[in-house]
């Protein structure tokens, strides 16, 4: 069937097409079906990081992802977008989840609304911050203005692992520490498998090579810096950094990632001071 979305959704669809191509299909809005299959619905009960093993492979018990079988997936490439419009066409059922970039895109839309509503009434020294639970965009009247933002420790969410200094622009984070749950087996009983919302669309399995990621993009570099920062932070979990190189360069993104062994890797210009994790 054909499904018409609001016109404001078009840039989001274009972003997903761009990241789908760059990651060779690992970044895909069609993971909605995989999330539902793993039990990510209104009844899901999240468990804290401290309640499960913090080893390199918390899913290395008698249950194994190697035994997990997903249904034949629909991919973003299977959905046609009529002439670059906001009409999506599919010939089979599909569940879309835009969580990998949607919240960041929402922040950009809210930022636009604030600027448009205030218009000429916007004071010359007016600064504001739109914060949607860790995905944020700072808007400063002065070029050298900055704020400091604590970066959550994925191994202990009551603490920070570092502090970032950001100017006008977007800072987004992604982590497997909070939205994690035990997968139920065919009989409805909880297994030892731990799922997260960070799904690699190529195999339908939660990504486990990273524990946290952060991405920053200056506002002047693109029209939707928070959407791109959100997407990059998510894509780092499911793809190689080299796959994202062109996008990162185009939007002037800086980023950092933390691995399960607490090792940290970051781009040289990512403006943050990290503590020992």
Automatic annotation (TrEMBL):
Domain of life: Bacteria
SUPFAM superfamilies (alphabetical): ApbE-like
UniProt GO molecular function: metal ion binding; transferase activity
Catalytic activity annotation: L-threonyl-[protein] + FAD = FMN-L-threonyl-[protein] + AMP + H(+)
Gene3D superfamilies: ApbE-like domains
Cofactor(s) this protein cannot do without: Mg(2+)
Enzyme Commission number(s) from the entry: 2.7.1.180
One Pfam family hit: ApbE
Enzyme's top EC category: transferase
Keywords per UniProt: FAD, Flavoprotein, Magnesium, Metal-binding, Transferase
The protein's name in its UniProt record: FAD:protein FMN transferase
Organism: Gardnerella vaginalis JCP8108
